[in-house]
Design a protein that fits this description.
Blueprint (H helix, E strand, L loop, with lengths): L1 E6 L3 H15 L3 E7 L27 E3 L2 H8 L3 E4 L6 H10 L3 E5 L6 H14 L3 E4 L6 H12 L5 E9 L14 H4 L2 H4 L1 H12 L4 E7 L7 E8 L3 E8 L8 E8 L2 E6 L2 E6 L14 H13 L10 H19 L5 E2 L1
Helix pairs in contact: 1-9, 3-4, 4-10, 8-10
Amino acid sequence: MYKVCLLGYGGIAQIHKNSYLDLEKEGRAKLVGICDISPDAFTKNIAINISEEGGQKSEISYNTYTDLDEMLAKEQPDVVDICLPTFLHKEKSVYLMRAGYHVFCEKPMALTYEDCKEMLAVSEETGKQIMIGQCLHFFAEYEYLRTLIADGRYGKPISGFFQRLSAPPLWSWENWYMDETRSGGCIQDLHIHDVDMTRYLFGNPTAVACRTKDGYGKWDSAHSTLCYGDDFTVTVIGDWSLKNLPFESSYRVAFEKATIVDKNGAVTVYPAEGEPFTPDLTFVNGYAEEVGYFVEYLSGQNDGSRNQAGSAALTVKTIELLRESAIQGGKQIAL
């Protein structure tokens, strides 16, 4: 069983922590320590837009630290799970891999594609593995869609629409989400989920375009188009400027013989022939599964292809091109 330490204890880290309970029961990974620079982080609840779980913190039964090196020395983990603000991802990932630890890092991989490439180079240099928390790869509603694309039961996809909406995340440490120099804004933090999923499902687009609008911060609303030659187009919307709106996510993908619709994890199939139906999907804790998959990769139980760091880096590159398109007023940019 791999020993894991958490670095950073904000809202997403609280969800990660609770997910390790599932992994420990299954004998896949065990959380042994948590580090945050603020001792207050271990005693307060933090809201989070994706789940109420982040505001319902369970009791901490792990060793807690405010110094990373002290935690590493005392706990001697195999993996460090980084749940820090985006602007710290590259720095801490590089430090930890060079110190001899495998790294699981929350998305986005880093603020820039150049930073991502450095992280990949250090992984190659040190032999320490890194995986990025593109959690949608591990949720049943997206895996079901991927299966339909692969087996072709409803023919080829002809159009796609993905959407992710929330109120502005104003609860963060030092309000870092609203500072685009530290978070990249909605386009890089929230919108990136569906841009990455589009790439995961359909491959790299041939061209992209994007229009954005500022709100509480920069890049708060992003409307993107990912083009796949003459075959089809995917529209992706990310918006965290919607005051008091409960978080929601959805997709709609039209195939030649059916349309598949998801809203907040509830999937309905609308076949061209026959009645609509709800597929029988087993609930999967994607946050636990992504880390479980990583430790299984470390022990040679899978090939890591389901969530490669190199692909996460290319998603950051795609976001950079979308941002450049937005700066140019929505101009289409060829890849």
